[in-house]
Amino acid sequence: MQNTNPHAVLLASPGMGHFIPVVELGKRLAIHHGFDVTIFVVAADASITKSPLFKLPQTPNPLNLMLLPPVDISALVDLTTSVVTQLVIMMREALPLLRAAISAMKSQPTALIVDLFGTEALATAEEFDMLKYVFITSTAWFLAVTVHFPHIDEEAEHKHRVMKRPLDIPGCRSIRYEDTLDRFLDPTDRNLNSSFTRVGMEISNADGILVNTWQDLEPLTLLALENEKFLGRVVKGLVYPVGPLVRPAGRSSKSEVIDWLDMQPMESVIYISFGSGGTLSVKQTSELAWGLELSQHRFIWVVRPPVDDDVSANFFNVTNSHDGTPSYLPDGFYTRIQNRGMVVPMWAPQTEILAHQSIGGFFSHCGWNSALESMVNGVPMVAWPLYAEQQMNAAMLAEELEVAVRPKIRPNNGVIGREEVAEMVRRVMELKGNEMRDKAKELQRSANQVLMQGGSSYNSLSRVSKECELKLH
Ligand code: UDP
Which of 107, 184, 165, 224 is nearest to 391 (CA)? Predict the structure, then answer.
């Protein structure tokens, strides 16, 4: 049977940070660009299907979301294997399921769009004569490092890893040693190195690369990715900035947090969250709590029990304070922060919070979705990166875009004390914060424009749509 619309199959790898932007891309393709869309999700377990995010809106064209049966990789990896390698293996194990699902489709789909960890599936796209795209759910700068990675010679690697010099990326801003990718400095992790090299090559061979950024945010890097003199020589397909694709704030469901925010003055509250899974050590959690107290500013903090290798998790279920403060927070914390602060366990409605007029700052681990959500709401940040490419994101937010402040040392490489925490909160929420807020508001305006009809990100997706239509007919 011949399709009338192009049909895009999207593949999301495990983790909310991948799932959310892939779903947003699917929605835009179906709502604004005439695609039929099927999104396949690989997850560590089936609980994701219970998330409200799994329910999609009605769209003019079919938009379906399906969970591929979770795959158990526990027999294939040991505990020391990096998350990147684990994700790559999980996606590899899910491939036969994806292949079977595509071959069972009544009509031939036009394109396969995978995220960073799904690039092995591009071979399946070739097999079914589909166009093959990669969707980078991070920055163009991160894409630049990834496609350059297979071409880094020993000398450059030695200079960066051993001599601690910046890593040069052709045509782009160099990466300082302190800001380099998580685990990148570990030359002994051969699995990670070979996974990342392979991923870099597979991305370079895709028909096109979609990136969750926009033209005005990273003009030089995007130029370097197109230019034959720089990275354009290694990237076969075109690079399409299609962002910022973020989950819109839905104000329908009232929550305790939003009710509390409704009562606070304009731009007076700092929101603290470390993404879908980020945790701090026991000591760092305590210093952060003291720092928030010291700052005297209003806050909402999404708190997870800290993770220390040498402390039993059971310890954290204990409250040893008369006011219900958990044992890992300073004694009496809940009493002292009453009316001024709110602690939310585990998960909060982040996009609704960041869109609220009472929010004046975001203390964030700099996952790229969180960073985008902050920028589209014009909110300046305390950049507190934890892992993956977050240190690069923090560098870009603080030094290039000037919408964030950063701690003096890399979090995870030591404990950042309460005084520094308080000082960073004050810088964002008080005077210096105004300059960063103005810059963040400028980005908010440009972010709003690019996704409107005729805007640069809208046009990028129109070009992808044209390619797919040509393939269809
Ligand atoms: N998120 C949320 N509530 C939370 C924590 C996270 O809604 O309490 C959402 C957040 O809005 C973002 C995503 O989860 O869209 C996290 O993605 P990000 O790239 O920021 O970080 P990751 O979780 O991948 O480290």
Answer: 184
Report yes or no: 359 and 265 within 8 Å, Cβ to Cβ. Answer: no
369 touches ligand 1 (CB under 6 Å): yes
Catalytic residue flag (residue 18): yes
- Is 16 near ligand 1, meaning CB less than 6 Å away? yes
Distance CA 473, CA 461 (A): 19
**ipTM score here?**
0.99
Distances (CA, A) of 454 to 228, 457, 458, 469: 27, 8, 6, 19
Q: Give the atom of ligand 1 at the shortest distance from the alpha carbon of 368.
A: 19
Considering the entire predicted model, what is its pTM? 0.96
CATH number of 256-447: 3.40.50.2000
> What's the token pair of residue 92?
């590899």
Residue with structure tokens 């069972």?
104
Q: Which atom of ligand 1 is nearest to the CA of 21?
A: 15
User: What is residue 379's predicted lDDT score, i.e. its pLDDT?
Assistant: 98
CATH code for the part of the protein at 7-243+451-472 = 3.40.50.2000
Beta bridge partners of 44: none
Query: Is 342's pLDDT higher than 90?
Result: yes
To test the pocket of ligand 1, the residue of 83, 276, 279 to mutate (highest count of ligand atoms within 8 Å of its CB) is 276
Please tell me the distance from the alpha carbon of residue 380 to that of residue 438, in angstroms, as a whole number. Answer: 9
Residue with CA closest to ligand 1 atom 7: 350
The ranges of the chain annotated as CATH 3.40.50.2000 are: 7-243+451-472, 256-447
User: Residue 36: which H helix or E strand, with range?
Assistant: strand 36-42
Buried b (16+ CB within 10 A) or exposed e, 322-349: eeebbebbbeebbeebeeebbbbeeebb
3-state secondary structure 408-443: CCCCCCCCCCHHHHHHHHHHHHCHHHHHHHHHHHHH
Q: Is the pLDDT of residue 186 over 90?
A: no
In terms of DSSP bridges, do strands 36-42 and 269-273 run parallel, antiparallel, or are they unpaired? Answer: unpaired
Please identify, by atom number, the ligand 1 atom nearest to the C-alpha of residue 350.
7
Residue 115 a catalytic site member: yes
Eight-state DSSP code of residue 319: B
Q: What confidence score (pLDDT) does residue 453 get?
A: 97
